[in-house]
Amino acid sequence: MRRKFDDTGQYSKWLIALLIYLLFGVVDSIILTGAPDSYSRYPKWAHSFENSLSMELKTRQSDGMLLYTDDGGTHGNFYSLTIVEGHIQLDFRLGDNSNEFGQRRPVNTIRIEEVRIDDDKWHTLTIFQSWENVKLELDYTLVFKILNQRSFVFGNILKNSDVFIGGLPPNMHMLPVMSSPLRRYTRHLAVNVRNLMYRQYPQGVTSPQLLESVGTRTNEDDHCKSKSMSSREQFVCLNDGECYSANDGPHCDCQFSDHDGRNCEIEKNDGELTFGGDEWVGYDVSMNISAAVRAKKENLTLTFKTVHGTSMLFYAGDEKSYLHLMLQDGAIIASSKFDGSDARIIRMFNSFPSQRYDDDSWHTIVLERSLQMMTLIVDGRRDEIRQYAPELDWISNSFAYLGSIPKHNPSKEVNRVSFRGCMKKVRYDVDATRVLFVNLADQSYGGSVVKTGGDLSYSCKNPSQRSDVLSFSDTSSYLTLPRWNSLSSGSLSFHFRTTSPDGLILYHGVMQHNATDYVAFELIDSHLFLIINLGSGVVRLQTTAMKVSDGEWHHVQLDRLSRTGSVIVDAIKIDFSTPGVSANLIIDDPIFIGNVPNNSIVYPPSVWSITLQKGYTGCIKNIRLNGVSAKIAQQFESTNTTGIELGCALSNELDICEPNPCQNFGRCSRNLNSFECDCSNTNFEGKRCEIEQTAVEVDGDESKVHVLAHTKVSQVEHIQIRFRTSSTRGVLFDTGANGKNDKITVFLNDSLLNLFLQDSSSNNTFSWGKSLSDNHWHELQVRRLGQKLLLYLDGFWSHSIYLQNPISVEIDEVGAAYSVHPSSPPPRDEHFKGFLSKLIFNGNDYLAKTKRDSAQLSKSSSRESKGQRNVKTRIASISFTNSTGYVAFSSDKISSLAGSFRVQFKFQTLMRSALIFFTLPKHDYDQSFRLQIMNGRLKYTYRISGQEFHTTSPKLPYRQHLSDMRWHSVLIYQDEKTNDHVLLVDNSTTTLIIDKMKKVESRMSGKLYFGSNPLGVSRPSNGYRGCISTLRINENALDLYEDADSRMNVNRGCSGPIARCVEDACANHGRCIQLWSSIRCDCSLTAHSGDRCQNPSTTVRFDGSPSAIFYEYAPNERPTTSKDYFVFSFRTTQPNGVLIAIECAADQDYFTIFLNKGYLNAHYNLGSRDHTVSYHTRVLNDGFSHVIKISRNESSLTIQVDKLPALRYRPKKASDLVLLNMQTRISIGASFNTRHLEQRRRMLRHRRNTEIFDSYQGEVSGVNVNGLMILDLYENGSHRIHTIGAPQTTAVSEAVSNSSEEDDELAEMMMAQSIEENPNEALIESLAPSCLSLEEQQTCFIDTDDSTDSRFFFLLHLFHTPVSIYFRLATVHLQFEEAVHKVSQGFIGSVLSV
């Protein structure tokens, strides 16, 4: 509604203004230049039930940002005042979703058309809001709007943003979270503002104090105005630059120009974008209703050239309307569609010479659209077409893409042929919002709304030139760049992308021993570190809180001025200051990217990746020194460096580790588009773990001391040793420093591993492991990163320790299994005796030379003995193709085998219970032997004189078993001293104790069968299916195929599966099921689909309007359950809404999972009382996808969010009912009742049966409720599924590829196992009636449980801390781990600070 007023009705307001003037005088004004970085910042606007903001302003600019403030993204609320085509416009959003059950809260827009404001005259502007009434008054014109919603709150004063005038800061770290992020790109306004008034806390309504200003002026002189030229843009600025006035005269804004300089006269080196076919630039804020920009008109300007006739150029719009610009057969086609109308199309051909625009010449397009008209101008030629959109008042924009769209985007209207060519001067104006795609493409990281895909190049001088992107695939490779001229100040920036956790990205320092001037960037444990030293002290700064080795692009910006500086990583800024007095970075040597030359220079010990010899593997681009591109592609092409390639070979879609290329159960990890095999838990080595490790025997007699060329100072160490010994004492690794007591010693003492660390000020000893002198292979690792120490043994990290003080150890000699300190106290003076197959220290292999010498000797011996005898190749293994297969050895053959009783072989199978071998003696009183696998463990039975003795192999930890299709070694023999039988499975030993009266020398007699029992006698279990190899009976090796007297259904060799279950074989924590021929992934508990759970499951988008999908049980099938589980994922930016709800026919029973203020909640009633559980570890309405797993066991509940620690809720009352009775329907996206809401917000229950409440806005995927895949049923058209509203399917579950019938049966059997709640997954456990609010959490506490980490609980009990689920457990868990050691040492104060 719109009304125009004269002077009447305004006396009270002017009276207040007059009183303020008389009391305080006119508030000083602020004049902003309108420069690209100009703005002023004021304190937060404190909102209440009635709110007002007023100001006086004067401007001559027709488009720009006047004021912006928001609630920090809490509810998506904001106020945005802009000037659009000379008119004032207010966009705003208020309220929250707590009481909204109908349409979602919209963005409201008010524009005053009657008054132009760009007349360089003073105007008075007032915003007033009282409950549902919002008024915008300009001078004497008033426009008001009545909101149709229940809630009118704005936000929390603690989280609200400041008030910005004239524009928003371009640095995202100053305003990292915005409710309406596209408004960051609104044009900056040249404006004079005075008498700004609004409510502040606690002052009340008053004039705010200026907090910060950039680009302000002291006068209003228009330096851009000329007597001969009235247009300010043409006065001093060239090449489409725009002029603005500052204190020192005219300046040019060259953002839209492809030139730079004071007058935009210097051509930019990076002012163009080159698209190669896989690249795009754009944004999509469709999931955030507050982010969409509403306008009366939009305008696109771009200049392009290409030789390809068909491709997409530009695509923008919202979910119901779009604007599309493309090339088709050399012609330009512009199409426009609004909701409720047909598409309008303009087609334009070139005039000369070929009527085509794919002629490798630059062409300029201007495309303008309003609600009534679309106009296309190409190289000055104009065409237009009328449009009709009677239902729309505004054009809405929530996405825009240039060049192409992401592959996962489901849009069907767009031409999906990607653009190949060059673009420049790309500008997209949506009223006052201006998106400069070329400029923003270089800022597409972190919190930026604008993103990029592919490898964009920022120059089009040579279309065949590759992108300025390099891939480092060899850790020893490096690239040399010219020096960085940064004596007293400078800037350095780059983008990187990697999956490797460690590596040196950049080093720039003086190339001499222990340089004192240097700067470096490195990755350690997937975090980015800056190391800088100006000559008077080093700063080592961790710049990231989250791990960045995630395969995504990250941006790094270093700015330094004298001794101070800052590092910005993905819009997160960290300041630093170097110690001492030196303020200059004096370096004349080049920059090294990826690694450093391996020469005789001793590099600074503070650069840990150099000490560890960890080069960089990954991609890097856009290296800029003081703002100038280093042109790394050209630098690379001018060298002969190997291990580096042009472009970025890293793909997040390709899983190079599927199937696993590592042999012998090596663990595969990605490295660009290649892989690395971790062979540490195998007996093999090599790139694919294909080479059997060579063991070196050491006896301590020969000196194994390696003297280093130069003394090194070590702050980090990585020691890897694989050993086998029967000795209980001995030094495995030792270091020494001439004339000093510094040492690092790893030694055995009483069969325990020990680490001794000593420097000039301290010494420490740590122990781990036990019973290691068992003559079996063991592998240890010691990894120290400064004060963090990790100790590893046989596949597991045994200890994580935080040292009290930093330790720096000098090293000039290394002892490999040899003590270099003969005067040390025992046993640190004793040399190791035994076998070694690996000894690596900081990347140096100290056994390599010994192994090479041994290999040459072995090769020589082989040549000398060649021809002495011909050895027949014997097949080592056989496969039992089904459970009826067997091989049999006759009684005569078995009796003829010499030697004492001994059975040795290897096996692999998937059968949980089966017969492996047994003997059939000639007489009942003869000895018999039987070996079975029962429930994944081996059971050995020995029978003598009618009496049976049996034993079972130990239960394996971590739910492991022997039916895992991996090779396992079995040895059964009789102890010579006790005559007891020993069963040795892998490294586990079990003794079968025989009755003294029955102890005789064991000897195998009768027939020996491997596999099934063809005679059908005895009682053994099912026949065996799998593989058996390397059989030895007594002292004789037998060929299972050739030496058998009879066989059936067996084949030579082991025809195992092509793929095997290894860690991460199934993506997204899918359950890997090993099949006979391959593997299968059970994705039902992942919210994903596909052969490897790698793709999204069926996904449905809810737009916030009343809509739901629900599953209806038949009246005679309504279940009553004591256990339930829910698995799903969701993505939203809205704080409230129901995700899943179960409605019951029983009067009080219900179960609802919903969002409240961004936190995940589960409320349920089982007939006795309400249970309310809230997961407050993290706010989840952040626009990212989150996987939720919830399981109920009677009245207890467990909630798991992503990979975060789980929350377990156990009510105290034993009288609680435990059944969820007579479930009638399961709904997705809304609830059929309001029971989950607070009592005061609940609705009456006598409403219509189909009315729904608390609608959700966002996406939901892969919903699994007690085995019902609700969304899959919805997509497949099940008659049990019903809908309300119009939810949209955006993805459909991918069908699993076909497999054999036997594999299907095996998979069904293994997937049929019920879900078991794993207590080890629950880190937080509450024993209170409720964990909903912070106040209620005061009664929740952590109960120490044997299944949980007692050290973590000890810390919480130590400080009597209640269970505040607000702990950021995922990020501080390591700090708690490190703090445990401090507590044990008495450093309570340090723990308190953590």
TrEMBL record:
Question: Which positions fall inside the Laminin G domain?
Answer: 29-224, 270-460, 468-648, 694-865, 876-1054, 1098-1290
Q: Where in the cell is it found?
A: Membrane
Q: Which Pfam families match?
A: EGF, Laminin_G_2
Q: Which SMART domains match?
A: EGF (SM00181), LamG (SM00282)
What is this protein identified as? EGF-like domain-containing protein
Main localization of the protein described in the UniProt heading: membrane
Gene3D superfamilies from the UniProt entry: 2.60.120.200, Laminin
What Gene Ontology cellular-component terms does the record carry?
A: membrane
Sequence ranges assigned to domain EGF-like in this UniProt record: 220-265, 653-690, 1057-1094
Entry-linked CDD domains: EGF_CA, LamG
Naturally occurring in which organism (per UniProt): Caenorhabditis nigoni
Transmembrane domains' residue ranges: none
Write the record's keywords in alphabetical order, separated by commas. Answer: Disulfide bond, EGF-like domain, Membrane, Transmembrane, Transmembrane helix
InterPro entries, sorted: ConA-like_dom_sf, EGF, Laminin_G, Neurexin-related_CASP
Q: Does the keyword Transmembrane helix apply?
A: yes
- Taken from the UniProt record, the cysteine pairs bridged by disulfide bonds within this chain are C1027-C1054
